[in-house]
DNA sequence: GTCTAATCGAGACGGTACGTCCCGTCTTCCG
DNA sequence: CGGAAGACGGGACGTACCGTCTCGATTAGAC
């Protein structure tokens, strides 16, 4: 019967336990390492071993808090996700433009890689799918508010198909992200969605 | 649509070489096995070993024709992709409805799982991404034709934002697929997109 | 969904598959590496990872042929076990001395470390235990022959307690091995066991 | 023998500190938990975490007193080792029989599993090896006394090869233990060792 | 009719990453 | 201030696939 030979202790300068509870430093180090890694090598080059190594953490520590690779990716995304301000520019088109530009710019960076990864991961992981769905709905509500604000501002007595416009905008941006087309123009799309003088055909 | 489920490899023991050329039976058997496997276990459970085993083929045979896992997935998808008919129902809304219903029904089956897998895989595989993009554009062209037909029919002298409407519809359906919401109602969306009396705000 | 990124191929100089069957070179390389490692670092320092690395083999290859660490140790022992000659020196005491010296010398080297490892491993692994038992019985038979030879030589009409003497010798040497006492004198023991003029108390 | 199974740690919630000194209840609880665990799952299933958990003790408490896993195993063994009485039956053969039966019976129970574990562990752990050796020598001395007693009793003026007979008996029993042969007959062996009329060939 | 060249099923191979398990250390906070 | 609780870094474990390779059998077409 062999014993697992433990390594020598006493290496100074390393993080240690801070008691029987999660060490925030460790968590931060892991999330940072993960973010850096995915930014550097993309989703395909992302792996737990390397994250642990960069974070100077044990692999078991990663798995203690994030049971799967997907869960870690999601956590990184959440910790990095922008705290969106749905700015009031005074007009619906302005608001949409501001929102779209904001999101597009964010997604063009490291965060975009992450979000794509999460969507991909959600296709084969129910937990991730659930989290993503929750997040999507929050975003959708934010957009609906944006449209509602236009009503309140008096741009229109009642915006027809408000929820659908929000969903269409959302979908459009998702697809632009996932097909790497964030650089493409999208003013026409916004003008189309911001046109409040449609005939409300579904009334 | 082109999704004729080819017959299972003949039960006559094992397939043999048919000389110094590609054995079409082998190819069919592999594509079938791959399709079946992905339908059964999803992308996560898809692996070359198992495909080879189910197809009673050698792994080398797989790699001879499809240099990577991604290439095989893509090939299976191509061999299974529905051969869409963009039916002319006499009205734009009718056409859209027909198209949407058709696609939704297809995606609700095995093909949907497959398409989601492809999109997911495309996030970390450039080859797949390229092929997906090509396919997406073809589909987009088909939709644009559908809108153009409405003009020709005289429903409108000129449909404003034609390409954007097509892209919005496409995006919307993609997102419904990827968020497992294909069962949700989408008439409102179609009516919105089919409303030809908009002010053409971007002229 | 991430793909496992395979390493670049074409590294020349490495062993490759020799078809759908066990590569004897690989097996030899692994057994050698394992033998070397255990000789170098002892049982405690023996691990599969390191064996694989030294043998320039994949870990999976080790586990394909030897399902556990114990199985590999056993295999190495078997491949290294001396092909014992129970030499006929003309007298029982001479034969015993020759045997004991031979075995002691063998066990003082790398092989001894192995044999101890196997006995240890057998305490918690039924397969190993079985193999060890088989081997032990073979050795016992060899010893019994050695005693029988003394009868045939006419040293005695009938050696009393022949099987027990063999077992006692065996046990004695095992214990000397396991308690690292192979350097201790053991002539007295041999003379005691070789004394054929005992009263045969069990008749 | 000292193997009184101490009572389970008191069910009064958790044990508390008894001041700046070792709490004997805690020690007992840990030793009990360890003994129980090794009896239940064998050496392979023995681990510090589980011992701590069962003893409702902190891991640090274990390591405070027993610096390594091996040390704890050893401590448990010591606390459980039978307090042998080398009974005087009036004859050497009787004494040997009594001793052998006693030891065999003990080893057939939990203690046997434990002793095997210790021997196994000793092969890759120097501390254990040392302690085991000390214990072995004590036992050997006990056996030598047993033979000496026969002399004193006048069964023989001088028993030849006294120490060797003791060692042979010891080794024989160890091997029977380690090869799971405790059920085998061993009277022949005892008679052979108890035969005092040998020719003392080594004088 | 024989030879040649490519294809076939099979599966071993070197690797990388996975997720689990345990060791021995460390820190907190409860009582 | 002792002790339970358990997080931590580290490292081995055994598994799962990837994409490559070699084998021996097979067969069409070139000769």
List the helices and strands and how they pair.
Four copies of one chain form a homotetramer.
Chain A: H1 24-41, H2 48-54, H3 59-65, H4 69-80, H5 92-108, H6 110-122, H7 126-153, H8 162-178, H9 187-194
Helix pairs in contact in A: 1-2, 1-4, 4-6, 5-9, 6-7, 7-8
Chain A binds a DNA duplex (31 and 31 nucleotides) through helix 2 and helix 3.
List keywords for this structure.
mainly alpha; Arc Repressor Mutant, subunit A; disordered N terminus; homotetramer; 203 residues; DNA-binding; 9 helices; 2 domains; Tetracycline Repressor, domain 2; elongated
| Average pLDDT level of chain A | 85
| Structural class label of chain A | mainly alpha
SS elements, strand count of chain A: 0
Assembly annotation: homotetramer
CATH topology of the largest domain in chain A: Tetracycline Repressor, domain 2
Query: Which radius of gyration of chain A do the C-alpha atoms yield?
Result: 22 Å
Poorly predicted runs of chain A are 1-12
How are helices and strands ordered from N to C of chain A?
A: HHHHHHHHH
Second-tier CATH architecture of the largest domain in chain A: Orthogonal Bundle
Task: Tell me the span between the first and last alpha carbons of chain A.
Answer: 78 Å
Query: Helix coverage percent of residues of chain A?
Result: 55-70%
């Amino acid at each position: 019967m062999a014993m697992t030979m433990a390594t020598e202790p006493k290496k100074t300068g390393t993080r240690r336990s801070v008691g029987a509870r999660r060490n925030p430093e460790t968590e931060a180090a892991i999330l940072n390492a993960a973010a850096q890694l995915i930014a550097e090598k993309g989703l395909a080059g992302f792996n737990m071993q390397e994250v642990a190594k960069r974070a100077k953490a044990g692999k078991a520590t990663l798995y203690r808090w994030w049971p799967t690779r997907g869960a870690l990716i999601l956590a990184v995304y959440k910790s990095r996700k922008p705290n969106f301000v749905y700015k009031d520019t005074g007009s619906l088109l302005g608001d949409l433009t501001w929102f779209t530009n904001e999101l597009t710019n964010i997604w063009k960076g490291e965060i975009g890689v992450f979000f794509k990864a999460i969507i991909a991961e959600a296709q084969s992981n129910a937990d991730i799918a659930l989290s993503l769905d929750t997040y999507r709905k929050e975003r959708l509500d934010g957009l609906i508010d944006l449209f509602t604000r236009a009503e309140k501002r008096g741009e229109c007595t009642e915006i027809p198909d408000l929820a659908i416009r929000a969903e269409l905008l959302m979908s459009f941006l998702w697809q632009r992200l996932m097909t790497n087309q964030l650089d493409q123009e999208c003013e026409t799309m916004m003008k189309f969605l911001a046109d409040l003088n449609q005939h409300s055909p579904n009334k």
